[in-house]
Amino acid sequence: MSTDDDDFDLPAVEGDTASTGAAADSSDCDERHRGLPRILRYAILVSEHAGHIEERLVAEINEVCPGLAQNAVWAATPDVTNGRALAAELDRMAVTQDASVLRSLADSVRLVCVPVPRDLASFEEYRRVGKALVEAFRKVDREFADQELRSDIEEFVYGWAALPACTDLLGKGITAARGATILGARMAEYRIAVAKAALRRRLKEEEEERRQDHAEASAAKQQEPIAEVTPEHHLVVARLSKDAMKNTKLKDILGPLKDVINVALPLVKAPPLHEVRNALLLEFPYAADVIDFALADLVGRTTVHLRPLLLVGDPGGGKTFFGRRLGEVLGLSAWRTDASRADGAAFGGTDRRWYSAEPCHPFLAVAQGKIANPLVLIDEIEKAASRNDYGRLWDCLLGFLDVESSARYPDPALQVNLDLSRISYLATANTLDPLPSPIRDRFRVVKFPKPTADHLNALLPAVIADLAKERGLDRSWVPPLDGAEYAAVARNWRGGSVRRLRRILEAILRDRDANATRN
Q1: Hey, is 25 helix, strand or coil?
Q2: What span, in angstroms and rounded, lies between the C-alpha atoms of 133 and 39?
Q3: CB atoms closer than 10 angstroms to residue 36
Q4: Rounded to whole angstroms, how far apart are CA atoms 444 and 478?
Q5: What's the whole-number mean pLDDT along residues 334-354?
Q6: 316 CB neighbour count, 10 Å cutoff
């Protein structure tokens, strides 16, 4: 286990529920999973082929039952035998301590480790987990509105229910959870086929309406009054005719966008590069080569426009924070997209005939900052879904990364060409392996290093300032670390993950707040 997951000896805070290491990864999963019962959360992690599932579960158990011997054994050797022993001990403790959370953890351990039920012993464990899954699914079905999430859970639960009758269809040595994922997907094939057929019929029925919409857009020639000469260092990103602006189908879409349509938006001018470099070096002294590589693209430019830049480095090194600070120091507004939760249909915009029609994300970035050259930050681009049900994010990005095509991007919601050629794109990745070659070819790739213990003094002010900003406080309201606090940080962070340094400082600030409340 890496040093990032080690416990750090800070003062305990009453009521502190913060998690560290793998437990933080588990409890801090994305918004889509938030609020799910624990057993369903792990079921979805298995079905999504998430990594380090056992480690996450070990970390959760360790927070509830520190030092549990069976947990340590399973952590070292996560096989079926050790998993069963751990689950049995958690069941025993659940009875003696009357703690339902322990029973939930026991069921989750069984979910992760029990094999496909081919004998009586496995079947009893399988049936117990099945009951827990069904009960949790009923709760989700009543309380959660996310239909896609409910569909994924239903697929897994039904796949689990089918396991005893379908053991011959599954290979030897796989867990019941993996088997449930395989069977659930197979059971949904015909339902998906029927849904697709219904969608094709609906599209055919709407074809005439689509043609009419396109005809209206093509015929509309009158434009809103726009200055005949666009001011220097300005750009009109979107032009819509008077008739298009009055289109009732665009009413909801245009509401927050009217200020950036038919308007010459400013292009942020490039600041003195030596000042930008010095400001970034103060916060990221370990990334001098990356700073120089990024800023070299602005030499001789009047306005800010970076060619697509991809930062590759180990998790926790501060890549995303660097990208955001680069945009801020250059004076750009930043639009962040989490690639693991994005698809091409959402990022590239959805057609106006759908009730959820929305312009492409780069144009939303323009609207957010009210400038023509914002920064679009794509976090963990390698984790974008490889399935193309809704269009792959990677494929969608190609049209934005090419200057020629981005200058005339056909937005499906507005049904007009947008000039998005001045937008800068910065992506982060832990590894290049999953990325297709067309994406790699369009990005300038640079290795992003991790800081060492020698960089602690340089990192502290920026991280504390960022934490103060999250709390809605001015930096001046957060006093510097005192001697004991600094020593605690230095003792528990010896370089590596900036994310871990951030968690340490969060704990110190919470402890500081708690002591202030008591006094």
Answers
A1: helix
A2: 7
A3: 20
A4: 38
A5: 83
A6: 19
Cβ-contact 250, 414 below 8 angstroms: yes
Task: State the Cα–Cα distance between residues 445 and 65, nearest whole angstrom.
Answer: 44
Rounded CA separation 172/179 (Å): 10
Tokens for 184, please give them.
Answer: 């659930």
Cβ 197 vs Cβ 189: under 8 Å: no
DSSP state at residue 434:
T
Q: Which of 353, 327, 468, 348 is nearest to 400 (CA)?
A: 348
Span of 18-32, 95-109, 287-301 with lowest mean pLDDT: 18-32
Q: Which amino acid is at 278?
A: N
Confidence of residue 23 (pLDDT cuts 50, 70, 90): very low
Report yes or no: 376 and 383 within 8 Å, Cβ to Cβ.
no
For residue 20, pLDDT beyond 50: no
3-state secondary structure of 87: helix
| Cβ–Cβ under 8 Å, residues 410 and 417 | yes
Q: Has this prediction a pTM greater than 0.70?
A: no
Tell me how far apart the alpha carbons of residues 333 and 446 are, in angstroms, rounded to a whole number: 22
Per residue, what are the HEC states of 207-264? HHHHHHHHHHHHHCCCECCCCCCCCCCEEECECCEHHHHHCHHHHHHHHHHHHHECCE
Which tokens belong to 269?
């001018």
Tokens (6 digits) for 267: 């292009």
Query: How many C-beta atoms surround the C-beta of residue 253 within 10 A?
Result: 18
If 0-12 CB within 10 Å is exposed, 13-18 middle and 19+ buried, where does residue 193 land? exposed
Could you report the per-residue pLDDT of 139-169, keeping only the tens digit for each? 876 666 567 777 888 888 888 888 888 877 7
The residues that bridge with 154 in the sheet, in sequence order, are none
Q: Tell me how far CA of residue 202 lies from CA of 150, 194, 248, 412, in angstroms.
A: 24, 12, 22, 18
Residues 65-124: tens digit of each pLDDT: 999 999 999 999 988 899 889 999 998 998 998 888 999 999 999 898 888 888 776 788
Give CA–CA dist 180/331, Å, rounded: 50
Asked if residue 307 lies in contact with residue 444, where contact means CB atoms within 8 angstroms, the answer is: yes
Cβ distance 291 to 267 under 8 Å? no
CB 443 within 8 A of CB 309: yes
Residues near 24 by Cβ (< 8 Å), separated by ≥ 6? 18, 59, 503
Amino acid at 517: T
Residue 513 in this model has a pLDDT that exceeds 80: no
